[in-house]
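Hey, quick one: can you model this chain's 3D structure?
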Amino acid sequence: MVFVLPDGERSFIHYFGANSTFGEKDVDYNFIKGAKIFNVAGFFLLPAMEGKPIANVFRKVKQMGITTTFDTAWDSRGRWLKAIKHAFPYVDVFLPSLAEAKMISGESEPDRICRFFLDRGVKTVGLKMGPKGSYLKTKDIKMYVPPYKVKSIDGTGAGDAFVSGFLAGMVRNWPFEKCIKLANAVGALATTKVGATSGVSSMRDALEIMKQR
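Sure thing. Here's the predicted structure for all 213 residues.
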C-alpha cells in the first residue's frame, strides 16, 4: 500500500509474501542467456538472496558476459551492509537512492558515498536524490545532474523509472553521462501523474524534457 503525501512523497506498507522465499536456486539462467543486462531491483525485499546468494548469482551472470545492475529498496529489518556487501565485486552499475546509500555506507556526502561502493568493487554508482537530482561516479567520471523541472504529483515509481531510463540508455550504448540525464528525465516524468507508471510515456517525451538543459 502506498500513501501519497501532498508534496508527492510516499510512505509504504508492505508484506513480503512470495518475495521472502525467492532465492538463488530460483534464477533461470537459460532464460536470461543472451540478455544485455541483468537487473536486480528491490533487493532488500528479497531476504533469501541476502549475503552470499546474491553474490553467487551476479558472479555467474557476469561469467555469461551479461552486465549486472543493482537497486535496493529500503531495508525495514536494518541489515543494510551486512546483507549486501558480498555482491559489490560483481556489480557493474549500482543505482540506490541517496537515503538507502547513506544507510548502507554510513557516509552522508554523495561523493564519499560513491567512493565507498567503488572501493568495494562496484564499477559505476548513480545516486537517486529525488528533487535534488542525481549524482554519478566512476573511476573516471564525477558529475552532478540537477533535476528537471516538472509539476510533481506522485513520486511513486520514480526511482524505478529512473533505473529504467538509465538502462534504456545503456542498451543504446550511450555514455553514462547521457544515461543518467535520461534517467533523471524518465524519473521526473513518472512524478507527473498518479501511480507508478502512468507518467512514463515515451522516449520522445523524455528527450523533450532533457532539452531543458
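One thing worth noting: The domain at 2-210 is CATH 3.40.1190.20 (UDP-N-acetylmuramoyl-L-alanine:D-glutamate ligase).
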